[in-house]
Amino acid sequence: RQHESPRRVKRAWVIPPISVSENHKRIPHLLVQIKSDKQQPGGVIYSIKGPGVDEEPLGIFSIDKFTGKVFLNAMLDREENDRFRLKAFALDLGGVTLEDPTDLEIIVVDQNDNRPLFQQDVFTGHVVEGAEPGTCVMTVDATDADDPDTDNAALRYSILEQGAGMFSINTTTGEICTAQPGLDRETVGVYNLTVQAADMSGDGLTTTAKAVIYLEDINDNPPEFTKEEFSMEVEEQAAGVDVGKVFVHDKDLAGSPNWLAKFTILEGDPEGAFTIRTDPYTNDGIISVAKPRDHEVRDRFELTVSVQNERPLEPTAPASPRALATVRVRVRDVNEAPIFRENPRRVSVLEGAPPGTTVTTYTASDPDTHQLQTITYALLYDPADWLQLDPRTGTVRTKRELLHPSAFLQGGWYIALVLARDDAEPPLSATGTLSIEIQEVNDHAPLLQPPASVLCGRPGRGGSLLLGATDDDRPPHGAPFHFQLSPQHPQLARNWSITRFNVTHAVLAVLVELPEGPYSLPLLLRDSGTPPQERQQLLNISVCHCGRDGTCEDGVLAAATAGASITLGALMIILGMLAGLGVAWARGRRRALRKGLLRCSQDDMRDNILNYDEQGGGEEDQDAYDINQLRHPELFLSRAKPPMRRDTPLSDATPLAPRKLPSSPSDIEEFINEGLEAADSDPSVPPYDTALIYDYEGSGSVASPLSSIISSLTDEDQDYDYLSEWGPRFQRLADLYG
Predict the structure, then answer these.
(1) Which of 549, 553, 543 is nearest to 698 (CA)?
(2) Domain of life, per the record (predicted)?
(3) Which structural domain, as residue segments, surrounds residue 316?
(4) Using one digit for the tens of pLDDT, what is the confidence trace for 428-453?
(5) What DSSP assignment string belongs to 554-622?
(6) How many folded domains does the chain comprise?
(7) Are residues 158 and 232 in the same domain?
(8) pLDDT (tens digit per residue) in 94-152
C-alpha cells in the first residue's frame, strides 16, 4: 500500500504545465480539471492559490471547488506575465488535507501583438564629402517587446526614402554606409533618410524613423576673384587708411578655414606702401596705405594681388582660373603743409651781439610743386622778445642785446618757434624750432674771495691763507684762475708768496715774520678765457699775534673779526643795569622775609620756596612778570592793567603775580629805572626779552671792575636770622649763618 500511493499521485494528482495564448478572448475559458484519487464519501473540496488568484494580479484564475475545473477569467498579456505558478489543494469536507499541494504552471503563449520601436525618432550622422563607397556613417537600432525566441521579435531594417540612393543599410544590424561615390557638400550638404524596422523577419509589424546625414566640408574649392581688375584712389600723405576692397567667392563652408581667404600683393609695390588684409565676415580683401604717398613723386600704382585659402587645397581640387587680380590705385593730389627740412635749426650768436644782428634765415619748402603757393613766416614763440623775423624771407635778426645770465636760457640755449603758412584754401602751416646758442664772451674778470682775512705773522704753520675767486663767465672763460702779487709792487715778493692750490684757489704764505697790524696786498687775478680778463684787487689782511699752535690768539682774532659787537660804554651800562636788578631783588626779598611775608605752616615748606622760583623771559613766555613794573611804577599804582611796551609780544594775559615795588626805592633803584627808561626810548636796543650775543673781547679789560657796585654787600652785612623761621629743613643753615 505504501508503494501504491505514490503511483496514484503521479497518475492523477501531478498536473503538467498548461499553455494558453495571450489575448484569448473567450472568457471564461476552461484550462484544466484537477482530481484527487482520495475520494471521500462526502466529496472533496478543491482550491488554488498564487499570482492571478489571491495575489496580484487578482481574479485572473478561478476553480470549481467541487469539480476541480480551473478557468481563465481575463485576457493575458505575455509582455506583462509570461507564466503563472499556482498551488492546488484537495481537502475533505472537514477541512482535512487529502493530498499534498501540487504545482499548477500556466504558460502564456506569445502572439505578435507589439510593433518594433526605434531608440530615437531622428538619428544624426556625419561623413566627409567625397568619401569612398562603403564608408559607414551611423547605426540605427530598434527593439520589439514580443518573445525574442520567436519570429515575432525578428527585426529587419531597410531604407524607404533617400533621394539619390547614395547610402545603403545593413538589414540585420541597421548600419548605414555610403553606397556610391560623388558626395559633394556644395551640391547636397544634408541627406534625409527614412528607415524602417519590421518584425517577423521583415514580414510582420513595421515602424519608421528619420536618419539625417551631414556632409563635412573639405577644401575642394579654391577662392576666386569676382573680376580681374579693381580700381580705387587715395589722398596723398594719408597713412593707415583703407583704400578699397577686392571681392572673392569660395564655395566651401563659410567661416571655415577652407573658406577663409588669404591675400598677397605680388607685384607693383616694392616699397611696401600698401597692405592687404582679409575681412573675416565677408572674406573680401581690404587694401590699406601703410606709408604715405606723395602725388608729386608718383600718382599711380598697379598692384598684382593673389588669393588662396588659409588651409591647403585638397589634391583632387581643380585649379582656380581667377586666383590673380589687378588693382589700380590713383594717388589724389591735396594741399600739403610746408616742411622745415632742418628741424630744429641750431645756430650760434655771440653774447652781447648788438640789435639787428642776423641770426639765420630759417625757411620751409612747399611739397605741392604742382601748385603755385606763397609761404609767409611769423614768430610763434619768442619768450624774451629778443628776435624779429622777416615774414617774406624768413630772416631772423636780434631785436635787443642777448646777455648772460637770463631766465630764458636753458644751458646757454635760447629756444624760439617759427611758423610757416601757405596761402592755399584752407591754408596749412608748419612749426620749426630755432635753437640759438648764446656763445659766451669773456667779459668778466675773476673776483677775489674773500677780500679780507686774518693770519699769523710767522712763517710756517699758521702763516698761510687759502684764497679763492669766482667768475660770472661760463666755461671755458672761467677757471683755472691765475693768482699773483701785483707786478707794480715787486717789493711784496720779499714778504709774501702765492702758490697754486687748484684751478680755483691759491695759497698766500708769509715768508718772513711780520709785525702785527693791517696790511693791504694788491693782487692780480686772471682767468683762462679768450682773450683772458684780469683784475687787480686789494686783499686786506690783519696780521695777528701767533699762539704756540700757529693760530691767532683770541683777543687779536676777535678784535680783527668783530663786526657786530657793541661799544664798551653800552656794555658797561647793560652790566650795571643787570647788577642793579640783582641787588634790588635781593634786598626786596630780605625785607619781605623780615616782614613775615613768607610765614606759613611748618608742614608745607615747598610752596613757600616755589612761590619765588619765577624765571620768566623769552618771547614764548607770556606768563612771566613784566619788567615794565620797574620802568613805570607810577603807572601800575594808578592802573589795574599794566601798559605794553611796543616790542612786547601781543598777549591779553595779565601777569599772575606781579611783584610790587618797595614803597621808598633806593638810589640804585632810581638808577635802574632811569637806565631802563633810556634803553626803552632807544630804538637801537634789542627787545627786553631778547637774548643778546656779545663778541669775545679777550682777557683783561681797560675798564674798572664792576665789583665796587656791590662792595658794600659783604657777608658781614647780611642778616640770616630769618632762616630760623623757615622750619626744621633750614635749621642747619640757620646754625651756620644765623
Answers:
(1) 553
(2) Eukaryota
(3) 224-332
(4) 899 999 999 888 777 788 888 888 88
(5) HHHHHHHH-SSPPPHHHHHHHHHHHHHHHHHHHHHHHHHHHTTTT---TT--HHHHHTT-----STT-S
(6) 6
(7) no
(8) 788 888 898 999 998 888 888 999 999 999 999 999 899 999 999 999 999 988 888 88
| Amino acid found at 170 | N
CATH code: domain of residue 393: 2.60.40.60
Q: Which pLDDT does position 287 carry in this prediction?
A: 95
Whether residue 592 is contained in a domain is answered as no
452 occurs within a structural domain: yes
pLDDT digits (tens, 9 = 90+) for 231-283: 999 988 888 999 999 999 999 999 889 999 999 999 999 999 999 999 999 99
On whether both 412 and 324 belong to a single domain, the answer is no
CB-based burial of residue 438 (10 Å sphere; 0-12 exposed, 13-18 middle, 19+ buried)?
buried
Q: Which pLDDT score is estimated for 570? A: 36
Q: Say if residue 207 is in the same domain as residue 233.
A: no
Question: Which stretches does DSSP call E strand in 324-470?
Answer: 324-332, 345-350, 358-361, 376-381, 387-389, 395-398, 413-421, 429-439, 447-449, 452-456, 464-470
Q: Which of 72, 94, 87 is nearest to 20 (CA)?
A: 72
Judged on CB neighbours under 10 Å (0-12, 13-18, 19+), 530 is exposed
Q: Please provide the size of the chain in residues.
A: 738
Nearest Cα to Cα of residue 648 among 693, 684, 691, 690: 690
484 grid coordinates: 699773483
Last residue in a domain, options 275, 298, 332? 332
Q: Domain check: are 146 and 56 in the same one?
A: no
| Closest by CA position to 50, among listed 102, 90, 123, 113 | 102
- Asked if 431 and 473 sit in the same domain, the reply is no
Give Cα 184 to chain centroid, integer Å.
57
Return the residue matching grid coordinates 624774451: 384
Q: Are residues 207 and 274 in the same domain?
A: no
Pair (83, 61) in one structural domain: yes
Check if the beta carbon of residue 91 is closer than 8 Å to that of residue 120: no
Residue 234 lies in a domain: yes
DSSP state of 313: P
Distance CA 676, CA 688 (A): 9
Single pTM value for the model: 0.44
User: Per residue in 413-426, pLDDT tens?
Assistant: 999 999 999 888 88
With vertex at residue 406, the alpha carbon angle to CA 403 and CA 408, rounded to the nearest 5 degrees, is: 115
Give, in degrees to the nearest 5, the angle at Cα 360 between 358 and 366: 140
Q: How many CB atoms lie within 10 A of CB 381?
A: 12
Nearest partner of 351 among 293, 295, 407, 413, judged by Cα: 413
| Residue 1 belongs to some domain of the structure | no
Cell numbers representing residue 420 in the block: 610757416
